[in-house]
Amino acid sequence: MLARQFLDMIQAKPLLAEHAELLDHEYSTVLASDLMSDVLAMQDIDPDRTILLTGLCNTQALRTADMLDLQIVILCRGKIPCPEDLATVQNMHPHCNLYSTRMSMFDVCGILHEHGMKGSNEYLSA
Q1: pTM score, two decimals?
Q2: Residue 38 near residue 64, CB atoms below 8 Å
């Protein structure tokens, strides 16, 4: 699904969206978690087709997205990061857009799943 489609469905507002070309990019997988160690444990994700959905609004979540080369991060429940964290996003490589939605993570996951996006359920062995 195109980013512009799912961002519209979940009423996401751009917080930092300097990379407009990502709106016409196709994504298929959602990593939804507030526990960044779980996100880092995911195997075989395609960063070009995966988004991060979280309610964790701090540098840890943004640096996790950076480590995985994710291009889109969506903050749930209307969260907005502090200016220092926005600066972190601006320095991410290759590039990342940050959005916020007032919806809960549960509701966003349901909408995205209903429209064909899947979650990643591949974990490293404990």
Answers
A1: 0.91
A2: no
Question: Per residue in 24-43, is it b (16+ CB within 10 Å) or e — as a string?
Answer: eeebebbbbbeebeebeebe
The predicted-structure confidence for 11-37, as pLDDT tens digits, reads as follows 999 998 888 899 999 999 999 999 999
Count Cβ neighbours within 10 Å for each residue of 79-109 and write b for 16 or more, e otherwise: bebeeebeebbeebeeebbbbbbebebeebb
**What domains, with CATH codes, occur in the chain?**
3-33+43-116 (3.40.1390.20)
33-41: long-range contacts (C-beta < 8 A, 24 or more apart)? 34/105, 36/60, 36/61, 36/64, 38/123, 39/64, 39/68, 40/64, 40/67, 40/68, 41/123, 41/124
